[in-house]
Amino acid sequence: MCYGKCARCIGHSLVWLAIVCIVANILLYFPNGETKYASEDHLSHFVWFFSGIIGGGLLMLLPAFIFMGLEQDDCCGCGGHENCGKRCAMISSVLAALIGIAGSGYCVIVAALGLAEGPRCLDASGQWNYTFANTEGGYLLDSSTWSQCIEPKHAVEWNVSLFSILLALGGIEFILCLFQIINGVLGGICGYCCSRQQQYDC
Question: What's the Rg (C-alpha) of the chain?
């Protein structure tokens, strides 16, 4: 098995997942495409934790690019030095995967908390507060209560959709990084790459 190719596939997947996480997090700042809610501090405080930008985004790009660089055209790794590069590079990818696990884990936790608390919105009493904070996430199963948020319009749908995306993508990133830890250990023990014409088993 060519462990380097597997790592490269994981790396490419993480890049796209990280980009979507960053976009989803940015959209949370602009309910209905409006900027005034961010400038007036009427957003959920979990939006300001940058879970998608930092956790599921930037922290994920570092291991992603490392994984992508494990398999070069000459399959020698580590600057082309075949004798020292192959297994060392795969073992070092485990450390990069741990960074990815930390970032994706952060993204998942913050997104879950954001979903549980709900959006900050203007209610019928004319106050800006967390209308669903005391429901322990129960509002997610009862869409009839979402109309309690008067402004921003569709605030609950916006909040739920984007935090759900961050939760799901963060979970996928976590699984991929966990898989790369296993892949990296096996690659480091067995020797990870082969030439284009020949493949070596453990």
Answer: 21
Q: What is the DSSP string of 134-187?
A: GGTTGGGG-GGGGGG--BSTTHHHHHHHHHHHHHHHHHHHHHHHHHHHHHHHHH
pLDDT, tens digit, 9 for 90 and up, residues 1-39: 577 788 999 999 999 999 999 999 999 999 988 999 999
**Peptide linkage before 152 cis (omega within 30 of 0):** yes
Does this model's pTM top 0.85? My answer is yes
Every domain of the chain and the residues it spans: 2-73+80-201
Instruction: Please check whether residue 128 is in contact with residue 121, taking contact to mean a CB–CB distance below 8 angstroms.
Output: yes
pLDDT of residue 88: 73
Distance of alpha carbon 34 from alpha carbon 50, whole angstroms: 19
What are the tens digits of pLDDT across the range 119-172?
999 998 999 999 999 998 999 999 999 999 999 999 999 999 999 999 999 999
**How far is residue 86's CA from residue 191's CA, in Å, rounded to a whole number?**
7
